[in-house]
Amino acid sequence: MKKVLITGGTGAVGTHLTEMLIAKGYEVVMLSRKAGMKNGVRLYEWNPSKGAIDIAAFYNVNHVIHLAGAGIADHRWTDSYKKEIYDSRIQSTQLLVNTIISNKLMLDSFVSTSAIGLYGNDVNGVADENYPVASTFLAKVCNDWETEANKVIPFGIRTVLVRVGVVLAKDSGFIPEVAKPIRLFAGAALGNGKQMLSWIHMEDLCNIYIKAIEDSCMAGPYNAVAPNPASNLDITRKMAVKLNRPLLLPAVPLFALRLLFGEVAATLVANQKVSCRKIQEKGFTFSYPTLELALNNLL
Predict the structure, then answer these.
(1) Going along the chain, which residue ranges are E strands?
(2) What is the pLDDT of residue 180?
(3) For residues 273 and 125, is the Cβ–Cβ distance under 8 A?
(4) Has this prediction a pTM greater than 0.70?
(5) CB of 121 within 8 A of CB of 134?
(6) CA distances (Å), origin 108, targets 43, 154, 165
(7) Is the confidence at residue 1, as pLDDT, over 90?
(8) Which residues, 6+ apart, have CB-to-CB distance to 88 below 8 Å?
(9) Range 233-248 average pLDDT
């Protein structure tokens, strides 16, 4: 039985991924702020800001899946919170990489999360994995994050970078946040509504992580997005139809979003049409390739 170590395993993606891995017969352990047990999974303590980690977490581990990082849209982007977003990803990756190298751990794979924020807020055309890195704050975070993860490659560890799009899930993130005002007859598109959103169903995202540890031919960056991106307005309209609610309000202009959310507003109206061709060419089949299938499942 293969053993997987997950960071950020108590979050929405980590929880779902853990359930799927266990169902497939994997043993799962996690690195967490506090040691203990959760839902039958052993948690080992680490503190990236202090460089502290329990090396026992790596005992007999075959694969590491790195999900940890402060929520991008959990708070307004003050200087201190932007530092937390950055440090939570860079310091945690550095700690993992240094632990793996210094202890000469021979893993089958190291799978690190990244995001399509690497491509910026206004993608020109369609972004594949070779699209230039943007100059935004999130692009720098993602680029530095990947740079740190890649430092295990010279030590013979197959490394995969999963560049995640907007995750659609029933109980967390985009779907409940957008559905809430729609249910209250206050739903509206954001910005001009034309900006493209590259999304992925939670189940497909978790299956990409699983493929990344199982497929020994996978290495380097892969966009984790569904084959059919949609405009913000199209997604909002289709959610309203599923929830049997009209869209009565005009689109929320960018200046209003900036007043409400500050610098985060730019990410809410980001135009990101991103390609998933590379992961498809590796033989990955999406269970939810269209928005209609995803919304039928989640709503």
Answers:
(1) 3-7, 27-32, 36-38, 41-47, 52-53, 63-66, 109-115, 159-164, 166-168, 196-197, 199-201, 220-224, 230-231
(2) 94
(3) yes
(4) yes
(5) yes
(6) 21, 14, 26
(7) no
(8) 48, 68, 69, 70
(9) 95
